# Entry
Amino acid sequence: MAVIEQLTQDFLRTKKLPHIWCPGCGNGIVTAALVRAIERADFDQKDVVIVSGIGCSSRAAGYLNFNTLHTTHGRALAFATGLKMARPELKLFVIMGDGDCSAIGGNHFIHSARRNIDLNAVIVNNHIYGMTGGQHSPLTPAGKKATTAPRGTLEREFDLLKLARGAGATFGARGIAAQPRQLEQLITRGAKHKGFSVIEALSPCPIAYGRRNKLGGAVEMLRDMKDSSISVEKASSMEAAELEDKTITGVLFSEEAPEFSEEYHKSITKENA
Amino acid sequence: MPESKPVLMQGNEACAVGAIHAGVRFYAGYPITPSTEVAEQMAVRLPDVGGVFIQMEDEIAGMAAVIGASIGGMRAITATSGPGFSLKQENFGYAIMAEIPCVVVNVQRMGPSTGVPTAPAQGDMMQARWGTHGDHPVIAFSPASVYETYYLTIAAVNLSQKLRQPVLIMLDEVIGHMREKVTIPETGKLMVEKSSSNVPSDWKPYDEKGLTPLVPFGFGHYYHVTGLFHDQYGFPTGDPPQVERALDRIHNKLKKYRDEIMFTNYIGHKEPRVAIVAYGCTVRSARAVVKKAYWQNRLPVGLLSLQTVWPFPDKEIEALAEQVDVIIVPEMNMGQIVGEVERYARGKAEVVPLNRYDGEMINPDQISEEVGRWLS
# Structure
């Protein structure tokens, strides 16, 4: 407990609490996992920068005691790219929601993956636009209801990690708010990985998503999340049919490739020599 | 670059060189005609000075990356044209609100929409002023020559840094692409102090007392940057008095430093009856008219050229209107700045628009004809 208290003191802006999130929201769990992961990764506090977009989860930046940059909708990765290129020694965590990252910010997401720039993208996926009151996002599962899909959305959802991998990301992991310790470990591994790391964190939104889709309250949503998830290790020995409707958690891929900011600065030093 | 030796240079190139001489070490952008040479020049030159050039996935990302780099302490610039200028507006407004220094170059082309990409125009002057949403202050320069492009880019970078306010350079296709003789001073002499993390312990990023320098990220000053209305530490607020104070703050700094922002130049008769007010490439035609009418024929004609278009040189126009019978405002659009001139002439002088919007420059004869009408 002492460690947690110390982290609260150091890494949280306690004066800015209570937060704005609704009761039952998973953003606090994900934010806490992020804070512990930063501690585990053993980064110097002054080197850590939190960048975020627009949406509920992006408000986390305001509660974290680092240099924090709350940007415009969808553009967090583009701001982060500029900062990382200017100051490659900084450790950047980019918090985005599912709509922020995969809809309006989709272009920056795939290009950050393609460049393999050393940013840690933490995507809090609650399957909905929460801040604006429950519109469907590219990560809303097909058939689920939203204010802008009152009969259930006909659109198919992205598999964010497949998208990231296809675009060139070199680290991809998925965790769930119902298993915060695992999530913390996944973010830590992503943070230590050199290259573009994508950590998708599934998080309940009982107010704007659960209620409309009759998924129960926060407790039921977290329980269902846990019940339907399966680790990547276990999943590897299972049949495809068994994995239908399952959420695979853990590190889905991790590989080495040249990292963009380092390569760039190496290349200009060579030119100067 | 040989020191203080005249060179033949393109406007877009002068912009890139000026930026680097002013300490710019970061460029992020997206290719678009007729501004692409700025990016190409930066791609060649920045690695030589240890700087960063990055071609982004779109215009929006170019603007965002520039702001990100600036928060990291690097002087940063981006360049674009018409359609790209539209796309950059949201993040441009963010930089105004969050008070992050940066310079945005718009090499104007004929619009609206895709328009005539290779034809010059001055159709984005009001977009420069009001393109991003909300009540915001804007600084915009409009060079009339390659030489002015070089010096105004340097001024823009330094001013932006000092005021923590983005600055626009409103080039046009004529100035951007024309080649002219420029004398570039010995490099390095024009640079100003680098930003520093050396600030008092009670430093606040948005101090109520007034301007404070930006301490880049990564030096142990943990503050928040947001596009939301914020208090003096950068944290979001919706409290009406604080919101009003924050908006006053970003406007007042431009008023306070007006003298350092406002560049205008008058040539011609000491007691003119007819004045021309022009900016950008149109100044060149107007200058030819004054040369002939005043320097050769001693007619009471003068030209006030505006290097600074925003904030608008209100006092300069007021003073001019007191003197003359008529102010002619030639513009390569359907009449944008003429409205401002009329507003500050306050009925003291007749204000006459002279517009051309076919993708060609306004030539001296057109202006001469109008001047002649008022002199006879």
Remarks:
- Chain A touches chain B at residues 16, 45-47, 49, 51, 61-62, 65-72, 75, 78-87, 89-90, 107-108, 111, 264, 267-268, 271-272 (CB under 8 Å).
- Chain A has eleven helices and ten strands.
